[in-house]
Design goal:
single chain; two-stranded antiparallel ribbon; 3% strand; globular
Length: 643
Amino acid sequence: MKFRQPLLLCVILMIVLALPAIPGTKSAGKSEIPDYSLTERKDIPVEYTWRIEDIYSSPDEWKKEKARGKKMLGQIEKMSKDWTTSPQKMLALAKLVDEIELTGEKLYGYARLQSDGDMSNSTLQQMKGEIQNFYVQFNTKTSFVETDVLLLGKEKFNQYLQKEPGLKPYAFGVEKILRTKDHVLPPDQQKIYSLSRLFSGTPGRASRLLNDVDLPKPEVTLSNGEKIILNYANYARYRAAKNPADRALVVKIYWKNHKQFENTFAALFDGGIKQHLFYTRIHNYKDCLEAKLYSDNIDPAVYHNLVKSVRENLEPLHRYIKLKQELLGLDKFRYEDIYASSVKSIDKKYTYDEAQKIILKMMEVLGNDYTAALKEAFANRWIDRYPNKNKQTGAYSGGIYGVHPYIKMNYDGSYRNLSTLAHELGHALHSYFSDKTQHYINADYPSFLAEIASTFNENVLMDYLLKNEKDDLFKLYILDAYMQQVKGTLYRQTQFAEFELAMHRRVEAGKTLTAEWLNKKYLDLTRFYYGHDKGVTEVGDYIQDEWGNVPHFFLYYYVYTYSTGMIASTALAEMVIKGKKEEREKFLNLLKAGGSRYPLDTLKRAGVDMTTSKPYEAAFKRYSHLVSEMEAIVKRLKKNKKI
């Protein structure tokens, strides 16, 4: 058996590509995009918020369920004495553990979702802390499980399986425990490790609060005389401004302000990465990468092959940047120009209603069951739409088994935000189909698969819009926006993956992560990926402490799954779009598989083998083709004097 994480959050680019609000009116009709970025959470129209009462009807019910959860915790010790002496007793304990975990998942979700909507609410912070303590108690009380399963052994468990069919859903979890026999701690040591989870998330939480709430926000004056407070939402908006001087101003001032706290961020990162090392050493793994990938049976070579393949295929990115420089009319392309739209004459905005219609239409490629689930998501308030005061930046999807997925957005109407909404719905429907198909214990899909369904939707969106658009200028806009996603999801996340690997190797060598080392390493990698020494992009020193604004590094070797996910989803999208019912069913079966198999096996059954070079070769060929298509469109537009 395995234990699920409380409210597995399939987090997308919460800081990396966090999406801002658009300044506007306090309220708006369906044809407009409202701005609530300075509005208190309690004043947001309820129809724009997620339906939290689907988890619990009130805080009082939450408290009652917490008490029930604690009562169930008290039953574990009594049942643990002889739980492996018969298949019936084994099943009874497994069911109790499931019930406790599901209760914890709902308790945590109720507090976490509301807290992310208002990060300044100390009551919600306290509720989250109480459930963290609940999980520490749970992990401490169940520290005997792995040792007892190892003592039981494969042969005896298989005999139990023949006598008690109810144990069948737990077979894969037992297999995974038996596979980790060299890395399982004795029960007494496991209890001590479990207690360390009381503070294990502190560096990440402190970093997020510093970035999103406590960091002082400077004021800047734009070229038109407008004064803005440079919070992250405004930074993310104005780094894409049409005026190069405004882009340079907000980027340089934002990071100059951030740099004041680089030593604090470095200390938090040092503590966070060393917690990974602590887990690695006490569980007898060779290094942190092996420790993270082992349970999912992923060879570390997959990680290294990703970094190697991307480093060897920077040519499509560099060609795209050169084309972007030409379209923006810049003598020199600088890092602060990277987020600007290449098509200055188009400022396309999609209302939320328009975004719904596009997503519903484009996903017809996956059939009626998929689109029916999408309609349910839109109609039943699975989605928290717009930014509000003290709401967490960015976007994510989180599933709660037996309830439904939840999606946090900060919708601003941009193409990028339309794409992000499609992305998060990919996560949500992955959870939806997995939960509908799998027993609770196997419904939680592994992180390696987490970014496939989401980036699949991004690919389908781009294909759909290109097929339904005849105007070359708008096609160029769509291709530019998609290549921005490729830049952010594949190249940038692989750069992050290489940086994260370097951080872990440094602490594994017994060294400390200092601001000086982190700055130099991050700047060197950024310059390599964006072609600084080749004259592609001038990467200024100011970007050297951007690492401090990336919360994903606390998620422990998660960022690489964005890149592998996009490589895999590019192949899968092409197969589904060009294929027939068989290809569609293979993809839907991937969504339904959850965590019932090792991820590489699940993906291989869908038609993609990530242990080979084939998916990488196909993806980079496609990206190169898309840049060539952009170049051809630019040539036609110039010939017709439209740009």
